Amino acid sequence: MNPTHIFWYFTTIIISYFVTDLGKIFLAKKLKSKLTPLVIYKIKKTMGVMLIIFGIFLILKGFIPKDKLNIDSLIEQVEK
Fold it and tell me: What is the pLDDT of residues 3-15, one digit of tens each?
């Protein structure tokens, strides 16, 4: 392995994280005035419901055999 390539790889990753963090800081400052306690409450409730739904889905996928649970056929039935 070429040490120069390794250096540039890690440099690129560190710069990407830095730029991403700056973007998050900028967006957080923009959203600060819009996040009232009521909005935060609604977001938390929505996220909780979504976590429950996805959790149930993952549990079902883990316990029900693949031949019994065919998602593609269920989607086709809903579309008809």
Answer: 899 999 999 999 9
Q: Are residues 5 and 25 in the same domain?
A: yes
Return the DSSP state at 65: -
Q: What single-letter DSSP state applies at residue 1? A: -
The domain of 53 spans 35-80
In the chain, the amino acid numbered 57 is F
Is the CB of residue 60 less than 8 Å from the CB of residue 71? Answer: no
Task: Decide if pLDDT at 69 tops 70.
Answer: no
Q: For residue 69, which amino acid is it?
A: L
Q: Are 51 and 43 in contact (CB under 8 A)?
A: no
Q: Which two tokens stand for residue 66?
A: 């693949």
Residues 76 and 39 in one domain: yes
